[in-house]
Amino acid sequence: MLKIAPSLLAADFANLQQEIDQVRQADYLHMDVMDGKFVPNISFGPPVIEAAAAVSPIPLDVHLMVWEPVRLLDAFFKAGSGKIDYITVHAEACTHLHRTLQNIRDLGVKAGIALNPATSIESIKYVLHLADQILIMTVNPGFGGQQFLDEMVPKIKAAKELIDCRGANCEIAVDGGIDLETAKQVVDAGAEFLVAGSAVFKAETPHKMIRALREV
Ligand code: DX5
Ligand code: ZN
Asked: Which residues contact 161 (CB under 8 A, 6 or more apart)?
């Protein structure tokens, strides 16, 4: 079944507890960590992860848009107090992606590899067996509310082919500009996990939008 992960970046930060409660029917709460270096924006770090973990009824999916995230894995893992299911790092941000993925799994957490729009799927074929998820960015990371990049649809198909061909046990997730229309396109192409920020948190009734996304 299609998994839905609302991105907290689009929530009202002055009311995190209520906002998180509004999306309790989702599968995961997606947390976008930005360092102002790998991406041109700063969002939040371990203290907010800790606060969200304390009140979230659903597990956390932590998307690290930071340089050399291997330095920070322990800090984020601790902040999550057992509530983190996924930690995703960018292939472009890791000098030693292979080791970084191993370190995430050593924490007992699922490991995700995020790819910027310009990064090809082939670049990660030798580490696919260490990943539980590939997160295909359908916008340039750094901001919520951006326009979906249509040219990423063939990339999702290429990811599916590569995963099938290598017999990898790895799911395909998509992040950026997901709404009811683009969700249908990415699901048809092979996506199994949708991250959606604005579409969910700016909807009048977030739980209805979650259900609608699940059924595209
Ligand atoms: C972008 C983030 C996304 C973002 C998605 O850098 O990784 O998770 O919050 O937001 P929407 O769904 O509004 O494009
Ligand atoms: Zn994200």
From this structure: none
